[in-house]
Amino acid sequence: MPDRPVELKIDVPPELEGGTYANVLNVWHTAYEFTLDFGVMQQVGEPEDPDAALQVPVRVVSRVRIPVTLLFEVLKALNTNMSGYESTFGPIRAPEAPTE
User: Fold this and answer.
1) Which has the closest alpha carbon to 67: 95, 94, 29?
2) Quick one: which of 72, 70, 67, 40 has its CA closest to 56?
């Protein structure tokens, strides 16, 4: 069988078209897969102990498990898309720390 190009035909169900907002990413792995937990920060309450670490609650809105063998493809796709974004809109900058 000769090598032929492969094109994925991506079908997004209507209920997923709007996507899910996330502003936190936690990544962990096993020997076989990487897990990406996307989450949203919740409101932070003041701890009773002023010396205690500030705990920020995060609600996971989506968990994606990726086989280790696919990880380099994910990184290449992110890099390609970041380069395209920066070519169109300019460099992506990290947010500046708020001044008090």
Assistant:
1) 29
2) 40
Question: Taking the model in full, what pTM does it have?
Answer: 0.78
Classify 99 in phi/psi space as left (phi over 0), alpha (psi -120 to 50) or beta: beta
Phi, psi of 35 (to 5 degrees): -115, 130
Residues 55-77: tens digit of each pLDDT: 889 999 999 999 999 999 999 99
| The pLDDT of residue 82 | 96
| Rounded Cα gap, residues 23 and 41, in angstroms | 7
- Please choose, from the candidates 20, 5, 12, the residue with its C-alpha nearest in 3D space to the C-alpha of residue 63: 20
- Residue listed under structure tokens 């209920």: 15
